[in-house]
Amino acid sequence: MAHPLSERSQLRHLTAQLDELKQKGTHFRLRVLDDIQAPVCTYDGKKVINLASNNYLGLCDHPKLREAAIQAIRDYGVGSGAVRTIAGTMKIHMELEEKIARFKNVEACVVFQSGFTANAGTVSSILGKEDFIISDELNHASIIDGARLSRAKIKVFRHKDVAHAEELLKEVASEPGRKLIITDGVFSMDGDIGPVDKLCDLADKYGAIMMVDDAHASGVLGRNGRGSVDHFGCHGRVDVQVGTLSKAIGALGGYVCGSKDLIDYLYHRARPFLFSTSHPPSVAATCIAAFDILENEPERIERLWSNTRYFKEQLGHAGFDIGGKSTPASETPITPIIVGDGRKTMDFSRALFDAGVMATGIAFPTVPEGKARIRTIMTSEHTREQLDQALDIIVKTAKQMSIL
């Protein structure tokens, strides 16, 4: 007879590691959203001002996106029934890819199930063990995983240090393998913008493939939210553009944009694309509607940036470290409040929640030891009253905890 699970010792090492997190004060439990992802919503039964979501443009519950999803369910059902390469490519999937390609000013696009799989699946499939990856030290985990899976040799340059990136390129210039330069367009923990234009210059100079992950730049930077490539005027110079449908677009998924041959190759070789069922038609329809809104309502992005500027100014005036001292300076709606100590940061986050503000504490290993922070994110839909109320709570709580 099998032993009851509680008596088995095979996974006891995981319990020990969880106990260690609890001792450090960085263990957390998932907060559960009871209603709609919105500027003010209900987590764990408590109404809070939400400064933690990636819903930059408030599209998660937009009426046009809801209508598009409901109509797609009526027209096409709830699921696609297969992976894209077998029987799961629906007309609506192709419409979405064509719409994104037009929006991003490229030849073609492929949609993945998530931004993570878009990055990991692309990097791992376009390079091999003879090749080299020149990667910013603060690039997203999905880029790092894709680089490891590719078995290419990974060279990491200091954050946004273009001269260091060039040194690394010079070191491998005479090696036979291909070279890939890769950066985030917007870095997810510090909110600063990658030097896309200068890295494009390096890619041109050394004949390297240029790749940008625009997850946090999509819907935020560039004309109508076209991203960092548009922001820097680098159209035609970035070989691989990755974006997300899960943040500003308000739904779920990731995408890769580039040449027709790149996308055709990913159809054949990107493992997450080959071995994952395609999006439900309702999600594809939702994303199409979201791109329509980006095209037709640029005022959403203007509100996002107005809120961002105001919130940063007020946090700075209050005396918080919001980057630029021990960490890079934020340049986008992602604004970290640097606390430093992991335990204190998580205690601060919990105290803010109890006082009515949802602002997530982030500690090691997501950020380096000693760089723990509360990460705040603005949206276009926060009102000035909500921001003032949140600022009041943040300042009062920080003073009570001797953070300010």
Supply the key terms.
404 residues; alpha/beta; Aspartate Aminotransferase, domain 1; Aspartate Aminotransferase, domain 2; seven-stranded mixed sheet; three-stranded mixed sheet; globular
What would your notes on this structure say?
Homodimer. Its EC number is 2.3.1.47. It comes from Acidobacterium capsulatum (strain ATCC 51196 / DSM 11244 / BCRC 80197 / JCM 7670 / NBRC 15755 / NCIMB 13165 / 161). The modification N6-(pyridoxal phosphate)lysine is found at residue 247. Belongs to the class-II pyridoxal-phosphate-dependent aminotransferase family. BioF subfamily. With 404 residues, the protein is of the alpha/beta class. The protein has two domains: 20-50 and 298-400, Alpha-Beta Complex (Aspartate Aminotransferase, domain 1), CATH 3.90.1150; 61-296, 3-Layer(aba) Sandwich (Aspartate Aminotransferase, domain 2), CATH 3.40.640.10. Helix content is 43%, strand content 16%. It has 15 helices and 13 strands. It has helices at 12-24, 63-76, 84-88, 91-104, 115-126, 141-150, 162-172, 196-206, 228-231, 260-269, 271-274, 281-296, 299-318, 342-355, 384-400, and strands at 40-43, 46-50, 108-112, 132-136, 153-157, 179-184, 209-213, 240-244, 254-258, 334-340, 357-358, 360-362, 372-377. It has a seven-stranded mixed β-sheet with strand order 3-9-8-7-6-4-5, with helices on both faces. Strand 6, helix 8 (196-206) and strand 7 (209-213) form a beta-alpha-beta unit. Helix 7 (162-172) packs parallel to helix 8 (196-206) and helix 13 (299-318) packs parallel to helix 15. The longest helix is centred in the C-terminal third of the chain and has 20 residues, at 299-318. The termini are far apart. The mean pLDDT is 96.
